[in-house]
Design goal:
This protein has 14 helices and 29 strands. It is of the alpha+beta class. It is globular and about 75 Å long.
C-alpha cells in the first residue's frame, strides 16, 4: 500500500463527501495521496451525498490517527435529479434517507396526488434559499407498484436504458453488412465446440472445445465472442459501452452494455453459424497441470447450444447422452467435466476461497409480479464452465503482463488487519473459533463445515464483507486474493463487461504488430505508447459502474422478495440472526431472504436479554442470542413503497 501524506490541522481541502445511512460522512480529498476525513452528523452543513465540498480540518477529539473535519462550503452538487414521494401540500420527500430535506414542487402537474413517486429536477438546493425547490421531470407511478419501484431504483442511480439513436443506427448498419471470413484468422469452423448457458440466456459469449492429444494430454479451446471485431475504440458504440461499462441484470430483464444487434445477433456464438472469436487453447496434462497455451483470432461455428441442465444430464445420464445423438460431443463434455473437477480440486487445495452463497432466482407472471423463488444450484455443469473461464483469464493475464500490454487487470488486495480481526470476532461469536492472521485453510474449513446450517449465510456474508473490494486497475502484480491468483483479469465476457472489451481491443493492436492470426508467447516489441488511454481513470470508472450495477440489482431483488413476502397470508416465520447489537438484533427470514431489525425493547419484553451467549447454548433457557441462531418472528409492518419490513420477536425456534 502507498504511504499517504500527512494532513495538517486547519488546512482547507476540496473533495467528495459520502454520507452513510447512519448520518455521518466521509470526505475523500481530490489529492489521492491524502487520507480520508471523518465528518460527524452535525458537521455536514447542507452537503448531500456525492457533493464536492470544501472542508476545514479539526483537531481529533478521541484516540488514534483519524482526522475529523466539518463542511464549510458546497462546491458542486452531485446531481440535480432525485427520486421522491409526493406528500400533502405540493411537497415531496426524497427517497434517499441520506437526504433529510423536503422539497417544494414548482408548478405541480394536474392530478398529482400523495403517494406517487416522481423524478424531481432541483431548482433550489438545500441552503441556497428559504427551502429546497424542484420541478417534476417524470411521474414514475404509484409507490409500491413493481414498475414504479424498479423505475425509482434505476432513476436513483441514473442508470441508462434506451440506446441513443446514433448507437442504434450504427449497430443496424453493422448487422446489414455481415460477411464472416477467415481472413487473418484461424479457421476453426470444423472444430467441434458448444456453448453452455442458463435456460434464459439470450447472448452466448463463450464456447468450449476438447481434444485428446497423442502425447496423452488434452487441449481445451476457450472461444470468446470477438466483439472488438465490430466495436473499435472511439466509435459511437464503444463510447456508449465505455460509459455504461457493464450490463445490469434485473430479475425480470437486462439493461445491456451493447445494443441487441451486437449482443444477441452479430457477436453471439449462435449454433451452426460462423462467428468471430478470440480463442485461448490450453494444453493440460492428465493430472490437470497446465503445460502451454496460445491466443489466436479465430472463426468458429458452435455445434450446439446447451443449457446447464442439459449438460448435467448428458454427463450424468446415459439415457440423456444417447438421446443427444452425438457420441463425440458426449465424450467431449465428459472429458471437460473430468478435467474441470481436477482443476477445481487443485485450485481449492492451493488456497482459493470459495463461498457457499445460495443464489435464488425470482420467477414472474405475465403481469410482472413476482411469483416465487427458485434455487440456482452451483452444480458441476456450472463448475465446468467456470474452471475453464478462470483458466483462460489467468493465461491471458500472464501474457499481457509478460508482454507489457496496457490493459485493465482485476485487482483484489488482501483484507486489512482490522477486517480480519472483525471477522475473527464474528466467527468466534458464531461458534467457529478463528484467530488472526488470515488463515485460508482454516477459513475454508469453516465455510465447508457450516454449509447447509442455519448460520451458513451469515458466516459467508461476514467473510465476503471482510474482503477488500475487487477493482479494475493497470497493475498486473497485485493479483486476486480470493482466487489466489498472482495475476488475473477479465477476458471472457466482452459482451457484458467493458474491461473485457477493452482488453480485446488492445489484443487486436498486438495482433496487428505480428500480422498473423496467432500471438507468440513473447512479442518482443513495444506494443503501444503508454499514453494510449489513462487506465487508472478507466479502471476507476468501470469499478464505479460495477458498484452501481450491483446496488441496482440488489435493490430490485430486495423489492421483489418483499413483494413475495407481502403476498403470502402467513405472518409468522422462522428467521436466522445475522447480527447482534446493543440496540437490537438483525434477522433474515430464510424463505424469502428478507432482512430486518428487531428493536431491543421488543426482545426484552419477552424476558430475553441482549447479551450474546455461549454459541453452543440453545433454546429459551439461553435467554440471549448468538449469530446463526434460529428465532421466530412476526411481520408487523411491511411497506412496499418504502421498501422495508419490521418484525416483532416471538421467541427462539424450538
Amino acid at each position: 500500500m502507498t504511504n499517504q501524506k500527512k494532513i495538517t490541522d486547519g488546512e482547507p481541502l476540496i473533495g467528495t463527501i459520502t454520507i452513510t445511512h447512519s448520518g455521518c460522512g466521509f470526505f475523500v480529498p481530490d489529492d489521492s495521496s491524502l487520507s480520508d476525513v471523518y465528518i460527524g452528523e452535525g458537521y455536514l452543513g447542507m452537503a448531500l451525498d456525492g457533493d464536492r465540498v470544501k472542508i476545514q480540518l479539526d483537531h481529533p477529539s478521541g484516540h488514534g490517527v483519524r482526522k475529523f473535519g466539518h463542511v464549510v462550503e458546497v462546491v458542486a452538487r452531485s446531481a440535480a435529479h432525485l427520486v421522491a414521494t409526493v406528500i400533502d401540500g405540493g411537497r415531496a420527500r426524497p427517497e434517499d434517507p441520506k437526504n433529510p430535506f423536503d422539497y417544494k414542487i414548482i408548478d405541480p402537474p394536474a392530478g398529482l396526488r400523495a403517494g406517487v413517486k416522481v423524478l424531481l429536477k432541483t431548482v433550489v438546493f438545500p441552503g441556497d434559499g428559504e427551502e429546497p425547490q424542484a420541478g417534476v421531470a417524470e411521474i414514475l407511478g404509484a409507490g409500491g407498484e413493481p414498475r414504479t419501484e424498479i423505475a425509482a431504483i434505476l432513476r436513483s442511480f441514473q442508470a441508462p436504458e434506451a440506446f441513443p439513436d446514433a448507437v442504434r443506427q450504427h449497430a443496424r448498419q453493422l448487422l446489414g453488412r455481415l460477411n464472416f471470413t477467415a481472413e487473418n484468422r484461424s479457421d476453426l469452423t470444423a472444430l467441434r465446440c458448444c456453448t453452455i448457458d442458463p435456460d434464459d440466456a439470450r447472448d452466448y459469449d463463450d464456447a468450449l472445445s476438447f481434444e485428446r492429444l497423442k502425447n496423452g494430454h488434452c487441449r481445451v479451446g476457450v472461444h470468446i465472442a470477438d466483439v472488438s471485431a465490430f466495436v473499435t475504440p472511439g466509435d459511437v458504440i464503444d463510447d456508449e459501452a465505455a460509459e455504461r461499462s457493464t450490463s445490469i441484470y434485473l430479475p425480470d430483464r437486462v439493461i445491456p452494455m451493447l445494443p441487441e444487434e451486437l449482443s444477441n445477433e452479430i457477436c453471439s456464438l449462435r449454433p451452426n453459424v460462423p462467428r468471430y472469436a478470440k480463442t485461448v487453447f490450453i494444453e493440460f496434462s492428465p493430472d490437470g497441470e497446465r503445460k502451454k497455451y496460445h491466443i489466436e483470432r479465430s472463426l468458429i461455428k458452435s455445434s450446439r447450444r446447451l443449457t446447464y441442465k442439459q449438460a448435467r444430464q448428458i454427463i450424468d445420464d446415459e439415457t440423456a447422452a444417447s438421446a443427444l445423438g452425438d457420441a463425440a460431443l458426449v465424450e467431449d463434455l465428459r472429458g471437460l467435466h473430468a478435467l474441470a473437477q481436477r482443476l477445481r480440486a487443485k485450485r481449492l487445495a492451493g488456497g482459493a476461497i470459495e463461498l457457499n452463497m445460495r443464489e435464488m432466482q425470482i420467477t414472474f407472471d405475465e403481469k410482472g409480479n413476482a411469483t416465487g423463488l427458485v434455487t440456482v444450484e452451483n452444480d458441476f455443469s456450472h463448475q465446468l464452465v467456470e474452471e475453464f473461464m478462470l483458466a483462460a483469464n489467468v493465461a491471458v493475464a500472464e501474457w499481457c503482463k509478460q508482454n507489457g500490454l496496457p490493459v485493465l487487470h482485476r485487482q483484489h488486495e488482501p483484507p486489512s488487519d482490522e477486517a480480519v480481526a472483525d471477522l475473527a470476532e464474528f466467527l468466534s461469536a458464531a461458534g467457529q473459533p478463528f484467530k488472526p492472521p488470515f488463515q485460508r485453510e482454516r477459513l475454508q474449513k469453516i465455510i465447508d463445515k457450516t454449509k447447509g446450517q442455519p448460520e451458513a449465510r451469515a458466516i459467508n456474508l461476514a467473510v465476503l464483507k471482510s474482503f477488500s473490494r475487487a477493482v479494475y486497475g493497470p497493475r498486473g502484480d497485485i493479483g486476486h486474493f480470493a482466487l489466489n491468483f498472482p495475476s488475473y483479469l477479465h477476458f471472457t465476457s466482452p459482451i457484458r463487461r467493458y474491461p473485457d472489451l477493452h482488453l480485446h481491443q488492445m489484443l487486436d493492436k498486438a495482433f496487428a504488430l505480428t500480422g498473423k492470426e496467432k500471438l507468440p508467447v513473447k512479442l518482443r516489441q513495444k506494443i503501444l505508447p503508454s499514453a494510449t488511454v489513462d487506465l487508472t481513470k478507466l479502471g476507476e470508472h468501470c469499478s464505479g459502474r460495477e458498484r452501481r450495477a450491483m446496488k441496482i440489482e440488489e435493490g430490485a431483488k430486495s423489492f421483489f422478495r418483499l413483494q413475495l413476502l407481502d403476498a403470502t397470508p402467513q405472518r409468522e416465520f422462522k428467521a436466522v440472526i445475522t447480527g447482534v447489537r446493543k440496540f437490537g438484533i438483525f434477522v433474515e427470514i430464510e424463505k424469502y431472504f428478507v432482512e430486518g431489525m428487531i428493536p431491543r425493547w421488543l426482545i426484552e419484553r419477552k424476558g430475553f436479554s441482549m447479551r450474546e451467549v455461549n454459541p453452543n447454548a440453545r433454546g429459551a433457557d439461553a435467554k440471549g442470542f448468538h449469530l446463526g441462531q434460529e428465532v421466530r418472528v412476526r411481520v408487523i409492518n411491511l411497506n412496499l413503497a418504502e421498501r422495508y419490513c419490521e418484525f416483532d420477536f416471538i421467541g427462539v425456534a424450538r
